[in-house]
Amino acid sequence: MFGRVAAQDQETVPGRTNAFNDPFVQVTSAIAPCPVPEGPLYSEAEVRALAHVRAQHGGSCHRVGRCRLPNSYLYDAEIIPRVHRYLREDGRFDNTSVWVLGERRLVTLMGCVQTQEEAEAMEKAVWLVDDVMGVVNLLQVGTERSAARYPLAGR
C-alpha cells in the first residue's frame, strides 16, 4: 500500500517502539522537504504508564454504548486505511505531504499543506470517514521545521 509505515518498518529510536501498534501512515508525499513526524514511539516506561489509561479509555465507549467493539483502539486498524484511501481518491490533496495516526478513533493529521484552507478541507474530509470520532489537525502551511506542531523524526 502506498506510503504505509508499518510498526515494524518504522525507523526505531533506541529504546522506543510502537508498542501499541497504533496505525501510522503517510497518505500523500508531494512536498519533499516536509518535516517527517516521529510517529507513535514509546519507551518501556511510557508503555507501562499508558497501558492502564489506554485500557480504561479504550473500553469506556463500549461500556456506555457508544462503540460496537469492546475497545475503541480496535477501530484504528480499519479507520486509517479508509482515511488513506479517501484522501488519496479525493484528489484535492495531491499537492500535500501528510501522515495520519490513529488512536482510539481519533485521527491525527501531521505534515505540510499549501494553504490553511486546504488544511481545514482535509480535516473536514476525514470527519466524513465512518467510525472517526475526532480529528486532530496538526498540519502546517509550508515546510519550516520550527513550525511543525508534532514531534519530528530523527530529533
Could you explain how this protein is built, in words?
The chain is of the alpha+beta class and 155 residues long. It is built from 3 helices and 7 strands. The strands form 2 sheets. The chain has a 5-stranded mixed sheet with strand order 1-3-5-6-7, with helices on one face. Strands 2-4 form a two-stranded antiparallel sheet. The chain starts with a strand and ends in a 14-residue tail after the last strand.
Mean pLDDT: 90
Count of DSSP strands: 7
Question: How does the helix and strand content classify structurally?
Answer: alpha+beta
* Rg value: 15 Å
Strand order of the largest sheet: 1-3-5-6-7
Q: Total helix count?
A: 3
Q: Strand count, sense and closure of the main sheet?
A: 5 strands, mixed
Helical fraction: 25-40%
- Helix-strand string: EEEEHHEEHE
| Fraction of residues in β-strands | 15-25%
Amino-to-carboxy terminus distance: 27 Å
Low-confidence runs: 1-11
Shape: globular
